Amino acid sequence: MSIARRWPLISLLLATAACSSQTPPATPPLVPGTGDSQREVNLIARDYVFLPATLDVVPGETIVLHVINGGLVVHEAVIGDSRVQDAWEAAESVAANPPPGPTPLVSVPPDVAGLRVVVESGKRADVTWTVPRSTEPLTVGCHIPGHWAEGMHIPVRFVGAATPS
User: Fold this and answer.
1) CB atoms < 10 A from the CB of 89, how many?
2) Within 20-163, where are the H helices?
3) Which residues are CB-contacts of 90 (< 8 A; sequence separation ≥ 6)?
4) Is the pTM of this model over 0.90?
5) pLDDT digits over 49-99, tens only?
């Protein structure tokens, strides 16, 4: 078979390999946001995924986080360490299979609340957030019952240098 006849198959294989990479691409240099000039960051929540696959931030910067729900059901973005994620997962598990009517409200103690943004389907919510200077591992997760288990969580990746105080 000639190379010309193989080209569609080769193209398909190359495209598939490019799409299946598990490592998020390198982050281009960021201009950190400040209190006077926040950097805008988009985070899209769809059914069981966040896009992009990592939330890239600079320690100490101030951002305006636009959480956009492109899914068919309510989603949330909870940013925090493992204690925060565990607290929200436990709190929201009681809301699984609620009776007819409004969704039950849930909360956690302030010391494990992290940053939480709840967004209805097709909506956007904005929040201004000053990124901690500590680079302890943080995660973005959705704890609407069943969503975390479906893999709806991504790492927060610290890039660049900390911004001045």
Assistant:
1) 19
2) 82-93
3) none
4) no
5) 999 999 999 999 999 999 999 999 999 999 999 999 999 999 998 777 665
